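User: Sequence in, structure out. Go.
Assistant: Echoing your sequence, followed by the structure tokens.
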Amino acid sequence: MKEHSTIYIYPTDTVWGIGGSIYSESAFLQVMQIKKVQFPRPVSVLVSSLETLAQFVSLDDLPFSTEVLQKVFASECSLGVPLELLKQSVPTWIYQGSDSVLFRCLAYPWILQIVHDLGGAPIVTTSLNLTSDPPISDWEGAERFWQTYAADAKFIHKRECLQALPTFSPSGQASTIIFLKKAPAGCSGKQPCLQIVREGRFAAGIAELLLA
């Protein structure tokens, strides 16, 4: 796939994000530089549909239905999938030597447009902030960051979002992060073994969905 090195700044359901094509190491390194990250760290893969996710993960091998998965992603959740469940590899700079890849799924119109601009590539995504600061969740803060630290990036303006979704606003809360894990003793059958590494505002409901 053609490499697109353009950087984008965009709102998500939780906080503002910054990213580019998952196939562009240049985009990844630019994001790390903008955030002033001293040592590269794992980032997430943002897809715009479960159909795109299915290009990378065998959904039939997951211990829950696609209907449940859709509800999980609609609940401000990032899902860590073990590398052995990937049917298509992702670039190594995405997961930085870890044993899982984090996925998010959002179908906002501006996310669809970014994916289209990237030639269909998913987005390597992380929170918009300097590494020493909390993630940005407000429109004004995101615009200031763009103008100060990443003026060459393509910025998704408030008017674009509100024209598409008049009541849209990031929640301001970090997403729940849940990793699927290999089944240890005590986990059997199709019951998923989960590790919640960060609790967002819907963490309890997400765990209940996945374990139902």
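User: And one key feature?
Assistant: Residues 177 and 198 are 5 Å apart (CA to CA).
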